[in-house]
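Lab channel / #folding
Pinned by the channel admin:
"Please post every new chain as: sequence first, then the structure tokens as a reply. Keep commentary short and put observations after the output so the thread stays searchable."

First post following the new format, from NK:
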Amino acid sequence: MTNQVNTGRVVREVFDIYRDQAGVLLPAALVVFAVEGLIRGLLTAVSPFLAILGFIVSLTAVGLYRGMVVQLVADLQDGRRDSSVGDLFRSVVPVLVPLILASLLFGLGVGIGLVLLIVPGLILATIWAVVSPVVVLEQPGVIAAFERSRKLVRGNAGPVFGVIVVFVLIFIVVALILSAIGAALGPVGTIVAGIISSVLTAPLLGLAGTVLYFELRGGPAGVGAPGPGSAGVGAGAGTGGPAVSAGAQPGGTSPAATPGQPVESPRSPAQPSAPGQSASGPQSSAAPPDRPGGEPGSEPPA
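Reply from TO:
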């Protein structure tokens, strides 16, 4: 069973992480999308028929970068805030092929749906919104990741769609402004404007899917509770009581099973027993310290 998603909270958390982690998110995006933009621009310049190949290159870059964003947020959940661009690149190597394949399938499915009737594309974009986090953190396989995403989104399609709309509109506005500026500067300006647009907006789109994943999984209990003083999507992500994981989850442990601590409700540290008091444990109705509250039958002091 998934948690109820709050669209406003997800949007706020995306911008919070974007601001706090811009020093890692933006350089990583620059590396990925500078290469992607140059390749796509060269392919289009050589022949318009190669634009389809450029589209595949773009989807590959998007899949790679979103995997890096997922790993960054998972690190924040575990209390690690010192990830570097190199760390993020290395972290997605084990799942690089599934990420790229999932990104290609996502792009083709949503793209065809939008071209044909629009509505099918919007539906697919909604139910597949958390495919990348599933691929990276749960690693069920490419096809199974799409089914897993659909199950996670079920019951929250409206709020998930609302989050998608917010960040897609931001992407469109930024892209239109920068493309207009780039067009005035010629072909090179158009390529540069496209790269800048991707660098600025790709982190938002990647974070949106990742924060949604943790929200649907129940906040920090989904992948790993944040350490003391750590910041991330765990703050305020849960709705209601703490989520209980059905088993070991990738990337962390359930907060209810911390090594060295009992599973039962925590008790206050043992205090020395006053004369005449029982040290057998908490009573259902403890008497005030200045009144007799010891063993049954004990007499108050004269």
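NK: Confidence is low (pLDDT under 50) at residues 220-302.
TO: also worth noting, Residues 192 and 223 are 37 Å apart (CA to CA).
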